[in-house]
Amino acid sequence: MANNTADHPPGNSVAEVDHEVDFGCTTMQLRELMELRSGEAVSKIAECYGDVQGICRRLKTSPIEGLSGNPADLEKRHAAFGKNFIPPKKPKTFLQLVWEALQDVTLIILEVAAIISLGLSFYHPQGEGNDSCGQASGGVEDEGEAQAGWIEGAAILFSVIIVVLVTAFNDWSKEKQFRGLQSRIEQEQKFTVIRKGQVIQIPVAEIVVGDIAQIKYGDLLPADGILIQGNDLKIDESSLTGESDQVRKSLEKDPMLLSGTHVMEGSGRMLVSAVGLNSQTGIIFTLLGAGGEDEEKKVKKAKTQDGIALEIQPLKSEEGVESEEKEEKEEKEKKKVNVTKKEKSVLQSKLTRLAVQIGKAGLIMSAMTVIILILYFVIQTFGIEGREWTAECTPIYIQYFVKFLIIGVTVLVVAVPEGLPLAVTISLAYSVKKMMKDNNLVRHLDACETMGNATAICSDKTGTLTMNRMTVVQAYIGDTHYKSIPEPEAINPETLELLVNSISINSAYTTKILPSEKEGGLPRPVGNKTECALLGLVLDLKRDYQPIRDEVPEENLYKVYTFNSARKSMSTVLKNTSGPGFRMYSKGASEIVLRKCSYILDASGQSRVFKAKDRDEMVRKVIEPMACDGLRTICVAMRDFTTEPDWDSEADILNDLTCICVVGIEDPVRPEVPDAISKCQRAGITVRMVTGDNINTARAIATKCGILLPGEDFICLEGKDFNQQIRNDRGEVEQERLDKVWPKLRVLARSSPTDKHTLVKGIIDSTVGETRQVVAVTGDGTNDGPALKKADVGFAMGIAGTDVAKEASDIILTDDNFTSIVKAVMWGRNVYDSISKFLQFQLTVNVVAVIVAFTGACITQDSPLKAVQMLWVNLIMDTLASLALATEPPTEALLLRRPYGRDKPLISRTMMKNILGHAVYQLIITFTLLFAGEKLFNIDSGRNAPLHSPPSEHYTIIFNVFVMMQLFNEINARKIHGERNVFEGIYRNPIFCSVVLGTFALQIVIVQFGGKPFSCTALTIDQWLWCIFVGVGELLWGQFISAIPTHHLKFLKEAGHGIPKEDIAQEQLTEGADAIDLAEMEMRRGQILWFRGLNRIQTQIKVVNAFRSSLYEGLEKPESRSSIHNFMSHPEFVPLSEEEARIPTIDEGCVEIDQLPSSSRKGGGGEPPGHSLHSNEFSV
């Protein structure tokens, strides 16, 4: 700070806050400045402040030394300009969550039935004593029943309250966890600033106005700022402006940097000019939050429809964005504005279909129950007994009809597995929490379960399969190939000087090698690992890079061409201090830089001509042997200019270079990777390596990892060969050509990010093979964004990954290790299996309970299981069983089977066999007890007992046996693939054990002390032992069922299929239309008749279709996640406005297109029109 105390702020500044007097600018002045762009901003800075240095002086900061870091000074800045923090949106209160939980349809039906029942129990009609109303009114006149009549209604309401509270609490704790995670990520996110001349990393929230921040490729800017010095800096501002072009930043043309934008290329330093709510992102955020709910909805709706992605959370907590996304989605659902079609995850789509099927069955059963009861009552009363319907009897009859309705609703409640959403939530939440320990930070919940279905993984090489600890192990200097690092004396002094200078200056100054933190440990590389390896070479040659950097500070670099995936090289230009002219140092991938070399330094340090044949010989004798050892080869070169060339014509500048040396860098394969890859291959997952490295290096590493196996006919391709094979003469990617390449492709070398995206998209869209491929992709660079977004599951690297890559991903690997991906597969499969286990158990309970309630009601006019007992079975079995079965830990055995795939049903034949088999056992026992229980136990019969009698032992035993059978069947449900040993690993799941024992204890309490509300009476010890004995019978019966081979039971149907293959193709066409929920699709079966009628028109439409088909070629498959960040940094991603201009009929014409039968849209034929309802919305 000492160097800028002399500059006092001019006295003319208007002080808004006391502290602003201390500085030469006010918050408002800086805000107004930041709202200007390019030329306007430059002239405004010149007019008001002179230059950027002038702003630095006013803000009392040094562009080189930064702030002093004095706490009093930082506090002053906080007070004057605010903190770099945007307060998060207020979470939903517990009451709001309760209100949301109450919206459930089943619960509403129950509430209505319970309230009517309560009302009627307090209402005593006049015709009570009237004999003419018949026996139908039996028991109502009894005093005891009239007093206890309210219990049933109250108990139903009570259980509804419990369900609602459980759901709301679940949501609330999820939200709390979510925010905890968010704040943790926010604290972890650091940014590089200069204070007291030292480069340090501080948490983003501690950045203040006046800080000098270092920015580099891949950063997400945490605050607004003005560029002080930049090298080849390009920024993606699409998150704020919606413009997909990258904006070049320079001091002369456009020095304004905005928070929430991504650095796509280059590096530099900026002066922080606005933080938190005063930054551009903060201002937008305040606009969104300011005008109350309505305003917020309007703004959000407008933004999403314009296709402008808003980066709401500048402090870029990944989860912050996701919570925003959630709110966006909710907004959209309320408003029915579907901007993009969200494709459901595999599990979601299967569950939706299953829930609809079960719901329909339950509705039919409950309707039949009510109709049969009413008919029986009407025939009995008015037909057989021949009574008249009189006015005074009406209330009594109505009371009876309500009783029937309650029984019907009870059947429906038992039929609908409302524990299913709970099971899914618990299973996912539990897995996500545990996956954190396995180094997987899950950002989108459904990614966890999608990973279990993965069939292909496209992985990076560096850092994921290898250790990312790079060291130079071979070198070719002065016509000699050294197999280990040479002694400095062996190298010509001039060549050595050039080499050391070139490496020290031509690398990011943020890259360093720090001494080890532990005694005797390895030195710590910071920054780009390849550059660290080269700096390590300088240290091995007994030289130091720091004095050279001090001599040539970053601001003295004349021009920098930073590394990017297109250049594959980096060059730095210096102005000669001694005379005129310039010197340029270059380094990069050896085959690319050598192609641009015309000279090479020989053993005496003199440059000699380097011809094409010399280059071929060098490639053959030096580069290929190095690459075959799995080394990455880097060429270091230089060039002198006597006069100043045109720095923008890169092709001319990066030419006529002089090669100084070629080095081979080793990056050892992680020891645990080969084992992890063989596990993947056993589990039916293909691992492909996509790397920017040389093909020989890539092949060597792939062989070490086990991706390429000897004797297999897999192929390795370079990016350019890959493109030649998959593109037609016009340069367009053709799916058919791609389908010939990808099944055998295992290594894609020298690939660009576009190649990676093309490969991923091609595999996902492919229709080769039985099922659609589910692809996971790893990425760390900014340009991996499109591929990560396109993939079904995108993994970003937590350590080496840039903010942009993390932003586009679904899961972040906190240790950058491939083995963590295998853990994610295991957890994903476990989620899927947990839900199948729960379904197997749940559906058995449902089938039995529905049949018992239905037949009981029809034969004895009263359900053997009372409404309250049913709700206890439902609530406890659902909620607690979902907790018990959804928290089973995963085992290695999960990796011994192939992925289920998209259209494999949720309920397999084996599971259907288990469900029906156990249901048979339970029904036989229940009906035996119902009709012969009194003889077996020598007790009074509970059937046809007068309505006011106390609860009978008979019906209590039935209830108790029923619950015991469910308890023991819960143990059976732990295995879904027909395994014999159902107790295997039961002690590893303490939650399961405690749930089973807890339910048992509660059941004892209910039976012994439940009394009238639960319609129970205490049982003797003998009766209890019999009940438990019958329950244990479930385990023995389970062994009998598993002995029956499933393949003999051809009649068993599977349920809960995924989307059939032909529908996937159709789904891709409905992208422009609103997303149709699968449940709605199921409801539209009636439309098949319409389509049959339309069948004849198809022929005429084929002609139209020929013209139409060309429209759809440009359409992408819908993204597997909708996100508020439209990733527009890539030329392949067309901004919405262009998309609309190109395909005019998608928006206005979606109705007419949708009215065509799908087969005609696909090219006229193929499949019967009956299939088409999955993609058609038919409006009559």
- Report the CATH C-level class of one domain: Alpha Beta
Our Rg estimate from Cα atoms comes to 36 Å
Q: Judging from the principal axes of the Cα atoms, what is the shape?
A: elongated
Helix content: 40-55%
CATH topology of one domain: Calcium-transporting ATPase, cytoplasmic domain N
- Give the second-level CATH assignment, the architecture of one domain: 3-Layer(aba) Sandwich
Biggest sheet overview: 9 strands, mixed
Instruction: Count the beta strands.
Output: 26
- Broad structural category: alpha+beta
What percent strand? 5-15%
What is the residue-mean pLDDT, rounded to a whole number? 75
Low-confidence stretches: 1-18, 136-146, 290-342, 1061-1180
Please supply descriptive tags for the structure shown above.
1180 residues, alpha+beta, Calcium-transporting ATPase, cytoplasmic transduction domain A, Rossmann fold, Calcium-transporting ATPase, cytoplasmic domain N, nine-stranded mixed beta sheet, eight-stranded mixed beta sheet, 12% strand, disordered N terminus, disordered C terminus
Summarize the structure.
By secondary structure, the chain is an alpha+beta fold. It has 42 helices and 26 strands.
Structure write-up:
This protein has 1180 residues and is an alpha+beta fold. Among the domains are: 27-84 and 207-289, Calcium-transporting ATPase, cytoplasmic transduction domain A, CATH 2.70.150.10; 440-465 and 671-816, Rossmann fold (3-Layer(aba) Sandwich); 471-515 and 522-666, Calcium-transporting ATPase, cytoplasmic domain N, CATH 3.40.1110.10. It is 49% helix and 12% strand. It has 42 helices and 26 strands. The strands form four sheets. Strands 10, 11, 14, 15, 16, 17, 18, 19 and 20 form a nine-stranded mixed beta sheet that branches. The radius of gyration is 36 Å and the shape is elongated. The model is unreliable at 1-18, 136-146, 290-342 and 1061-1180 (pLDDT under 50).
